[in-house]
Design brief:
It contains 20 helices and twelve strands. It is globular and about 65 Å long. About 6% of the residues have low confidence. Helix 5 packs antiparallel against helix 6. The longest helix has 26 residues. The protein has a two-stranded antiparallel sheet with strand order 1-2. A two-stranded antiparallel sheet has the order 3-7. The chain has a two-stranded antiparallel sheet with strand order 4-12.
Length: 520
């Protein structure tokens, strides 16, 4: 039974002010005895655990992985398209988010800083708790550093120049993107030093609990930040440390990474824990979790096929066509195609207990269209996604990603031959032939393009493609940009600077001196 981190904490600092004509100033401030305060909390080991659990809870709201963050990460790539009737969503992939309408991107921004604030609460208060279990204290602090790094990673990656809070204050000035990345690196380094490889061999309140951040997760994200900042040598070192931990392996069935069947598996470095069984059934649209608030994801209904969900996100034909480029060693189509999308497959394809061709037979447009399959509860256990309550965990970092990023680092540091081994580990899982045989002796430039192709087919609809496009500089390369436009018409409306989202207007209003991102 997988462990779910659902012991939430919301600490309020409530001061009741009573105004009379006959009291001293110190009598004006009174603490509500029914509300936890910083003075009554942060006393025990259990408080420390509940405090860090509160920081995890920000991963589950609409601004983060319940819905908004996957949309922000996915929609700008050439693996997805959107014809959503909701303009805020429709415009994300067209690089046209509106400064005056913060829906989706503004919710994400707000929630990242909510998570950072909660992590900072832990980092400020837990060191002062007299804990008998020093190992537990280290693990709690390590998780707080990891979560602060993760939330800040998203803020810097999506919004560029943002505040970088490392303490509890009333004002946080805008920093440069370089400053932001530096703090993310520092947080993941600290987390890696404090976190265990696994919780199976620890003692304390967190013993055996799955879903918590580990050393491997911290090192994996550390390598990712180095890669994003083109520090290939340090990235290579971090990824090799993950590999050398010896605890990660690719699962045999690629699709097991996107269903409830095999969550927290050997391939998963970190995933967001969702569940239909935990908590209530109310939808968590943001803010502090209430008692009836569920711990489920709205990704499935948002990305769901026509008549089974809202179909706000769909795969592109470029993605479908790229899966046809290379056959497996048995002559079959890459099996990741069927794990990624629904389509009118010769011989039939099932979705939600229905035959695709039969179900859409009266709608030629849908019959000849493509729909998302990743992260859908579509194997027959549910009739559709209209209850908005998916329990599928969101896999944020997979071992396959580490292997391909490590291969990229090898290529960028002059070891192009060495990259073949790690690319082939990912290819072999789905039966693709030996790349060293089919494309021997590639140059560094050729290998770059090959790695881009491999990543495109391994990670569609997982929030990686546009990050790759941006960090590779393709938007500034006229030839690459023209190629992207030929594959996905949404790139026709890209303008310089729009690779980042706007700083929300509320942030601009509350923090005078904040400079809006270029292009807005």
């Amino acid at each position: 039974m997988k462990y779910k981190i659902y012991n939430y904490l919301t600490v309020f600092f409530t001061l009741s002010v009573v105004m009379t004509s006959c009291v001293d100033n110190e009598d004006l401030l009174q603490v509500d005895p029914n509300v936890e305060t910083s003075g009554s909390f942060w006393k025990t080991d259990q408080d420390a655990i509940e405090g860090v659990n509160a920081a995890y809870s920000s991963l589950l709201t609409d601004g983060t992985y319940m819905r908004s963050t996957p949309l922000l990460l996915d929609l700008k790539g050439d693996d997805t398209r959107s014809n959503s009737p909701w303009d805020a969503m429709y415009n994300v992939g067209r690089f046209n988010s509106n400064v005056s309408n913060p829906a989706i991107y503004g919710w994400a921004y707000e929630t990242y800083y909510q998570g950072i604030y909660r992590a900072n609460q832990v980092l400020k208060n837990v060191p002062n708790i007299d804990m008998a279990d020093k190992g537990l204290k280290d693990r709690v602090l390590g998780q707080a550093y990891f979560l602060r790094g993760l939330y800040l990673f998203h803020a810097v990656n999506l919004f560029k120049n943002v505040p970088v809070p490392t303490d509890i204050a009333t004002f946080y000035p805008q920093k440069t993107q370089a400053d932001g990345w530096a703090q993310v690196i520092a947080d993941f380094k600290q987390a890696a030093d404090l976190l265990p490889v696994t919780y199976n061999n620890v003692t304390g309140l967190d013993a055996g609990e799955k879903g918590r951040a580990t050393k491997g997760a911290a090192l994996g994200y550390l390598g990712k930040v180095y890669l994003f900042t083109k520090d290939f040598n340090n990235a290579k070192t971090a990824f090799k440390q993950v590999i050398d931990l010896g605890v990660y392996a690719l699962v045999s069935n690629y699709r097991d990474n996107f269903t409830t069947t095999n969550e927290n598996n050997s391939e998963s470095l970190f995933e967001v824990q969702f569940s239909r069984e935990a908590g209530g059934v109310d939808l968590g649209w943001g803010g502090a979790p209430a008692s009836g608030w569920g711990k489920t994801s709205a990704r499935a209904i948002t990305y769901g096929p026509r008549a089974f969900g809202w179909t706000d996100v769909q795969p592109t034909w470029a993605l479908y066509n790229d899966y046809q480029i290379e056959k497996t060693t048995s002559g079959a189509v890459d099996p990741r195609l069927d794990a990624t999308m629904f389509y009118n497959k010769p011989g039939g394809m099932q979705l939600y207990g229905q035959d695709f061709a039969s179900f859409y037979s009266k709608s030629p447009a849908d019959l000849n269209d493509l729909f998302c399959r990743k992260y859908q509860n579509s194997d027959g256990q549910f009739a559709n996604e209209y209850d908005w309550r998916s329990g599928i965990n969101e896999r944020l970092l997979r071992y396959a990603d580490v292997l391909l990023m490590y291969a990229e680092c090898l290529n960028e540091t002059g070891d192009t031959p060495g990259a073949y081994t790690y690319i082939q580990m990912v290819r072999s899982r789905v039966g693709l032939p030996n790349l060293a045989t089919t494309k021997p002796g590639m140059t560094q430039a050729q290998m770059r393009d090959q790695i881009a192709h491999e990543r495109f087919l391994e990670f569609p609809l997982e929030g990686h493609r546009f990050d790759d496009i941006r960090r590779w500089g393709w938007l500034q390369d006229p030839a690459k940009l023209a190629w992207l436009k030929s594959r996905d018409a949404e790139f026709n409306t890209y303008t310089s600077g729009r690779e980042y989202f706007p700083i929300p207007q509320l942030e601009m209003d509350n923090n005078p001196g904040t400079i809006q991102n270029d292009g807005y």
